[in-house]
Amino acid sequence: MFEQADALLLARIQFAFTVSFHFFFPAFTIGLASYLAVLEGLWLKTGKALYMDLYKFWLKIFAISFAMGVVSGIVMSYQFGTNWSVYSDIAGPVIGPLMAYEVLTAFFLEAGFLGVMLFGMNRVGKKLHFAATCMVAGGTFLSAFWILSVNSWMQTPTGFEIGANGQMLPAGSWIDIIFNPSFPYRLVHTVLAAYLTTAFIVGGVGAFHLLRERADRRRGIAGEPNMHARKMFSMAMWMAALVVPVQIVAGDYHGLNTLEHQPQKVMAMEGHYNSYPDGAPLYLFGIPNDEEQRLDYAVGIPKLSSLILKHDLDAPMAGLDTIPDDEQPPTAIVFWSFRIMVALGFAMLGVGLWSLVARWRGKLYDWAWLHRAAVVMSPSGLAAVLAGWITTEVGRQPYVVYGALRTADAASPLSASAVGASLVAFVVIYFTVFGAGVWYILKLMGKPPHSGETGVKRGDRGPIRTAGIAPGLSHNQGDNGQVGVLAEPAE
User: Of 124, 125, 133, 267, which residue has the fewest beta carbons closer than 10 angstroms?
Assistant: First the structure.
């Protein structure tokens, strides 16, 4: 079925599919790990059991999401050697050490403390357990640091030279490679996006349980207000109200940096096929037409793009007419993904401001339409980070390393049938395995948080022992005269 297909296109689709699935989980767990650290810190400071209940409620969800993120991330690494072996060979001397640093710092830090975080609540001291939670949260940030450094270098490559064998080799200081021109802006923008993704998921879950509580009251089912749902909703709305404006400013700076180093990406984002010598319009809507090099049915605001990008209404803006056709990215994808991201960002801002009004009027837990909006917006962070990633990656085309290595020259010499078969396998397996995981996460979120949350528990019988008797276990004499082993009871 793939004999007439393009192997390069299939390889790009496969990587886009797997990385899109993967991106959802780190975008959620980066923020959730920090949220768990905040909850446990508040519990230690105030002694209120409510914070520990919320900690244990979200810890179960974090454990599953973290596991799915690790598994889905490993798959992408293998694709560097299968579908993109030329890229790995040419750029490997630069990106290989950076990805190794991610494993040696972030992944080892997370793996070392994750067990204590999940199972050590009653086995270590409170402060040591809090330190483990903080280390896991720090590990997720370090992971984002190194991966974004690699990806940013692919966007704005610096600090390298082309060796005699055609490989990209480090030249000078590694600081120039790690802290490449776009990295600081992308790190801030992406990490803030992860925090907001978590905030809106937490807020949506809290709002869902507040709406359920309201429905129970209408049916005459008496009950105390769910203080756990109220607390998580309140914390999430504070995050939305305070961080979304910061994210908009960070996004503006990131856009200015992109204009400096990747101007054709911004041209595609803005839909500017033509140059504007006396001020460029901001197009709100249009149908990009790459063949005719124009924006059909364009609706825009005169000169606003120049004001936003260059802070001058009359500032000239170059268009795609200054870029050779074979250097232009697919404008339609970049144009629309960017607008989806921006629209979701301003919708988040609206919910945050709405919550401030409700809080000021003492109606934060009473306004049903605010709660409904929060539920609808709960996946908005995931959609926004995916749209942002599409804007960034598609806008870099036709290069995999911007200005240095074309995507067409980076793929492995594979047949379309080989790439297509693995793509079909990925689609089937991902939707089956990760679909089941997401279903279980939603099931956990649907259970209202309550006092006495149990958190993550070991199996009832503990680990399987293939030989011998572990020290510290009790023994019992069975009715048949044989000695049995009783493990310590699970928490």
Answer: 125
